[in-house]
Write a structure and sequence with these properties.
heterotrimer; A mainly alpha; B mainly alpha; C mainly alpha; A: mainly alpha; Ribosomal Protein L9, domain 1; Methane Monooxygenase Hydroxylase, Chain G, domain 1; 2 domains; 3-stranded antiparallel beta sheet; two-stranded antiparallel sheet; 5 strands; 10% strand; C: mainly alpha; 6 helices
Chain lengths: 192, 203, 193
Amino acid sequence: MDPAEIEFIAEDQMVEIIPKFNHLNLIHLISGDVGPFRAGIPVKVPLWLAINLKQRQKCRMVMPEWMSLDTLSQIKEDEKGSRFFIKMPSEHYMEMSHMILDVGADDIANLDQVRTLIKDIWDLRISKLRSSIDTFVKSGGGHATLNHLTRFEINSIRTILCDVLGTMLSLKDASCEVDVMNATTTQSQSQS
Amino acid sequence: MFNSGGMRSHYFSLESILVTQERVPCVFHQPVKHAGFLDSGSQNPDLEAGAKLDLPYWIAKLFHSLNSNNAKIIEITLPKIFKENYRDILTADASLVDLTKHSKYFYKFGKLIINIPLRESPEIQILLQQAFKDRFRKIFDLAQHLVSDFHGNRKLDTLELEILDRARKCQLALDAWLCHGASHITTAEMVVNHNKRKLADIS
Amino acid sequence: MFCEKALELIQELERAKDLLSPYDTDSVRTILEEMNMLYEENINVINISIDEIGSEMYAFRLRHAALERNKRCLLAYLWHRQQHVKQMRWEFGSILPPDIKNNLSDSEIEWFSQYNRNLAVYMKSIGSDGLNLALDMKPPKSLYVEVRCLQDHGKLEMDDGEILYLKKNNQYLMARAQCEPLIRQGILEQILR
C-alpha cells in the first residue's frame, strides 16, 4: 500500500473541533451524520472534515489527548523500557499526528516538542521492528507474533518481509515451482 | 498476477527462460543421432557416447528425463558454482561473496539443479537457504539507507536485486510521505524515463 | 545450436526492461522459420519405417523440445511487450508520443487502440455519468493544486471553457482533475508547500 492510502483510511478517525460558525442542521454523509455546529461548542467530526474546516479557518482543532507532551513522553519511556511493542493510544498515531501537526500548527502548544516526541517514538519502534525481523529471518522464520504494531508500521516492511519469507519458503520446499517449461516431464515427480 | 517478487516462475517469465539457458556439465552414455551439432568442437553429425559437454539446462534436462534404469543417456554433474570449494567460501561468509560471478541467477539456478536431482542436492538446498539468510541483512540495510546507485552493487544475484528494488520503492514512498505528506502528484515513471532518454539522445 | 535467435530476443528484452524497443520483425520471422524447419524434420521422422524410428527418437525429442522452447520465447516476447503497451496507456494516457508509437508493431498499435476504446466504454458506463479511472491515482486532498509549467505546451481548454496558454515556468492554480493528467505527463509539476 502507498502511505497515502493508509493516511486516507486514518482520515476517518473522529477528532474534536471547536467551530467558528453556526450550522444547526445535521449534515447527512455516507459515513454518518455530522453536526450540529455551534460557534465555540466542541463537536466531534471525522479528521478529513476537521482538516478541511481548519484550512478554511472555520474552526480550531482540539488535540487528541494522547498528543499531549506528558502522554507522549510516557509512551516514549515505556517503549524504550520494553522489549516488546507497547500498545499505542491510537492505531493511526503516525498518520493522524502527521496531518494534525501539518494543518493545526497554530492550535498546538509545544509544537516542536510534540513533533520530536512522535518522531522519537516512531524511530524507536521502527528500529525495534527491524531488529526483530532480522532475528526472525536468521532463525529461519517459522512464525512469530508481534502485537500492537500499527497498520502504518506494518506497511513499512510488508513488501520486503513477504518477498523474503516467500523466497525462503520456496528454497525450503525445493519441489514447488520448478520451471514450468518442464512441468510436463516433472509432473509425476512433483505430484508425489 | 505475474508481477510479484520472489521465486515465482511462470511460462512467460524472462528469468525462467534465461536461467534454464545456464549451462550444466554433462556426459553422454549413449550416442545420439543428429545431435553432433551440440558439440561445437566436432564435425561428426552424430553425438558419440562418452562426449563431455556443457549443455544448456533445458537440453540436459530433456535427455535426463529420458534416462531409464537400464539405459542411461546422459549424466549431469555439478556446475562449478555449486562445487565443494565454492560451497565452502559461501559457508564461511556468504554476505561477502559476489554471487553473480558464475551465474546471474544463483538461487533459481540452484533450485533447478536441486530438482534434477543430483547426489549433492540436499547439501545445495541447505546452502541456498543459509546463503539467503546470511545475505538478507545486507538487502534489508540497502533498502533502507540507500546509496544512490545501488544497481552498481553487482554482488547481488537477480532475485536479491528484485527484492531490493521492490523494497526500495516502498521506502521511497514512505520517505516522500514523511517529507511532503500525501497530496503530491508526480510524473508517471514511464514518462520520466522517456524524457530522460530524449534528453540523452539530444546531447 | 537450436533456439539461438529466440534467446537473443529474450536477452534483448530483459536488457532493456524499462523501454519498448522497436518490434523485431526480422528475429520473429527467423524464429518462425526455424520452428517450421524443426516441424518438417520431425514430420519426416514420423514417416520413416518403424524399424528405424528407435534410433531417431532422441533427436526427435530434442527437436520437439526446441520447438516448444522457441514457442515459449516468442510468446514471452509478445506477452511482455503487450504488458508494457498496456501500462503505457495508464502512464502516458490515450495518446502515445510518436517516437514510442514507431516502435510498436501494427498489431500492437491495433491492440492499443482497442484497449483504449474498451477502457473508454467501460469508464463511461460507471455510475450515471462515467468515472475517469485514470484520475486520483492517490486519494485526493484538495480540489485545487498549485502547479508550475515545465514546457511551452500552448493552448489548454479548461472545463469551464476558458482558454489558458501554458508557458514554461509560469505558475497556475488549477483544478486537480484538470491538471493531474498534465502532471503525470510531465508537462506540469506540482509546487510543494
